[in-house]
User: Fold these one by one.
Assistant:
Number 1:
Amino acid sequence: MPKGPRFIFVIGGVMSGIGKGIASASTARILKSKGFNTTCVKIDPYLNVDAGTMNPVEHGEVFVTEDEMETDQDIGNFERYLDENILSDNYMTSGAVYLAVIENERSLKYSGACVQPIPHIPEEVIRRLNLVAKKTKADFILVEIGGTAGEYENLLFLEAARMMHLKSPESVMFMLISYFPIPSKIGEMKTKPTQHAVRALNSAGIQPDFIIARSIVPLDEPRKKKLSIFCNVRPEDIISAPDIDNIYQVPLNFEKENLGNKILKKFGIQERKRDLEEWGKMVKRATSSKKEINIGIVGKYFGTGKFTLSDSYLSVIEAIKHACWSFSVQPNILWLDAEVYENNPAKVKEELGALDGVIVPGGFGTRGVEGKIKAINFARKNKKPYLGLCYGMQLAVIEFARNVAGMTGAHTTEVNKKTKYPVIDLMSEQKEKVFAGKMGGTMRLGAYACRLKDKTIARKAYGERTIYERHRHRYEFNNALQNVLEAKGLITSGINPESGLVEIIELKDHPFFMGTQFHPEFKSRPLDPHPLFREFIKSCLNSRKSK
Ligand code: GLN
């Protein structure tokens, strides 16, 4: 194989939200299945330096990498499809790139040159992409550029891609993911919007090598031919990507049209066999499991309607699915609005009573907190399997302190600074950061070690003594109150060996009651479901059986 990394830029056309991330991740999975070292990069055009300062309703889940970066949810997709950790080098925003260029300018790194959007911004992008190539030693790097062709915001990223292609056309390729609407009154698939998207790309100096055609149904031959002429792409390089039931089917669908070998051929690399056997088995389990279990997620990011929900809690949903499929069952996920529970105990009983398990995921601030605590109280007393993730763990400690340990008014200082029992509190280093207004990228982030105690659910689930999980929070279990809470029956089953901070709590005399200060959902993979989610789902299935 000729030397050096190959870059495949993935660009969107017509509209957003059509699965650029999944298409990039799926193409990467295919190339990996052919034995190539493959990685993915996401470039986001907004000015936030990272995704950490954005509301999840606005932009979807904030994903956290092992090495402390708060990123777009697509990095999570890349990890799930590649079954590998993706590190912070593989994520950049306009904000991060501009900041680096301006900081360089301030420290005279440009030797007196006039620093300009072109070429200095694209050059910084190219430097970062080459760094990824160097560090990962990848044969293929899929680079997903956020936004769509024709937008102002991502022009300088397209310019970087164009410059890389100019320098080394044999190692750079472009893939357009575009949408083909079928207007209901016309009843015919329309290719014109995509023709415009290709024109917009052409005017940025880019000609797509492949077009991935997203639509309700596959593209037919006459349309492929037409598109081919108008867009200057061979008909065989237009790949149909019709809507599917399960996102993990996409690599298999792309391979029906032999995308992997078509890519290799264009790069002048010998074709190779793929090995998607294990992947195919997973997809089969996922799509053929019919038996359902009811899992409730008690949250608050319900502001903009149902459509955003699955994005705000994407990794949690995926982790539930991975675990369920490993038991050949299908999750029926119910969205439960915590605020409704605050003054309505009957609703708690009615909604939670019908569930097989309850999850309170991560969250921030005051809204919905008392409702979540009510839900946790119900799960504890009625022996419903409960999994609390980050805020869900902190609120479980508060519920226990108030209602079992008799600490009336116990709280987190995030909500009540004057509580008599601050069972969840800011660590001193966090106090300094918050006081100085340094909020972006300063939470406790990324992977930390956690030592598990013997004879706990966590120890049994992981099978290991020391585990590493990813964090994203400012507040912590207050160790000053640890002994009192333990004396009342709270089990602190996982402790950070360096700081002594409590990372996992459990309860005795309950089939499954667990809270984790970290976010296990970030490390669940379809081919390797997370042990805690597996244990949780197992317990949901058991409690269903015993009903
Ligand atoms: N708000 C809590 C904290 O900052 C929990 C954060 C979370 O759930 N990710 O500690």
Number 2:
Amino acid sequence: MKNKKRILSGVQPTGDLHLGNWLGAIKNWVDLQYEHETFLCVVDLHAITAKYDSKKLAKDTLSTAALYLACGINPDKCSIFIQSQIPAHTELCWILNCITPMNWMERMIQFKEKSIQQGNNVSIGLFNYPILMAADILLYDADLVPVGEDQKQHLELARNIAQQRVNAEFGKGEPILKVPEAIIMKNGSKIMSLNDGLKKMSKSDPNEGSRINLLDDADTITKKIKRAKSDSKVGIEFNNSQRPESRNLLMIYSILNNKDIKDLEIEFENTGWGTFKKLMIEQVIESLLPIQERYKVLIDDRHELNKILLKGRENAEKVANKTLHRVKSHLGFY
Ligand code: TYM
């Protein structure tokens, strides 16, 4: 166990998880879990940084944990836990708030994008979000953080905080915090919207049709893919920058089908959108079906889910509290 590298990652329980969350992050966790010591949290404190429904938070939190399992996370190999149940996350976040320069935070692209979406309702929490994420990661001395492309800048921030603001200033030559590395998959790390191949698939897009949720039924998947943006050309290409929608759907198809993109480009050289979309619909339904079937069983077994989350919490808490104690003692607390 000791020689295994440690992984930490998480997803926000904000509504339904979509294909981007699965192909960009969770699928990678599933592949990595047997060779690594893996901590996976449901980041519910991040989910309240934007307007949210308090009646749905607990349900969505549990549903996200069940989806981790349904996607293939093995609870005997990984610790799955709920972020808000471990107070060390918010405590380390506060400490890191106080040593992180404001101008580092002002560069955060995701904050800028999300605050435009949220207009006058932007919370301090949304601005602070990347520091809480740094705390999540640094508490576990994570070596590796498997995330989608959009989290690259947040990972860089976590690295800079650990290296420059904690280790360099308080470490007296000895590292206090491990400096983590992002693992971003070559394919799947940036799944785009079904309506616009230049825009990321996102839970916060007000248009439901822009994403395929992991729990969408066959009818919904069919409708969404039929309505997905296409173009007037024949043939499904990957490398034509004028055809981002073709690139995106081919990428998704290739991951789900486990076929090389180059081979698919040849196969679909003369295929029209109608035929390709039909194949795409069949593939997405077939790939999501086993996840949905496992999910149905898991979400009804509250006892088993709670047992898994309790075990995860106990494992996580031990590691997190130890790191927090180490940080506090180096930073001069009594
Ligand atoms: P969230 O919930 O927005 O996204 C969860 C994961 O899904 C990835 N992702 C995507 N990947 C490919 N294509 C997309 N369209 C797409 N949309 C989302 C994200 O990159 C992410 O890996 N801030 C994090 C949650 C977090 C976290 C952490 C992650 C909080 N603390 C600590 C890792 C480690 C987030 O974006 O969640």
